[in-house]
Design goal:
The protein is mainly alpha-helical. The chain is built from six helices and two strands; from the N terminus they run ββαααααα.
Length: 117
């Protein structure tokens, strides 16, 4: 994804001396409601802790949020847009029920008109 945008990851993000598992990082943030959910819940420190960061780090929340913004936020937005595009192409359940009911009513009406002729 990043290479396709001409923004390849040259050096993976680190928590201290430990490389961050980007997939796990992404999943933890998504589970908390995505970027916006983590911001509103002020959950960046808990994400940092779950990723195995040093609990003594006083800038953990800020570092975690910045890593997410740099490496994963654009992917989250891309994935949400893809999801929205799929939702937009699906016929709504109410629409399909409505169409079925109209077709059924039309058949009944045509049947009655046929009987009268």
């Amino acid at each position: 994804f990043m290479e396709g945008r001409n923004t390849p990851i040259e050096r993976p993000p680190m928590l201290g001396f430990k490389q961050i598992d980007l997939h796990m990082f992404f999943q933890k943030v998504i589970d908390l409601g995505g970027y916006d959910g983590c911001v509103s819940k002020k959950a960046w420190k808990s994400v940092y802790d779950e990723l195995g960061g040093n609990p003594q780090n006083t800038s953990a929340a800020t570092c975690t949020r910045r890593h997410y913004e740099k490496f994963l936020l654009s992917y989250e937005k891309y994935a949400k847009n893809m999801e929205q595009d799929v939702e937009d192409t699906k016929p709504k359940l109410e629409d399909s029920i409505d169409m079925s009911m109209r077709a059924f009513d039309n058949e009944k009406l045509e049947s009655k008109q046929y009987e009268h002729n």
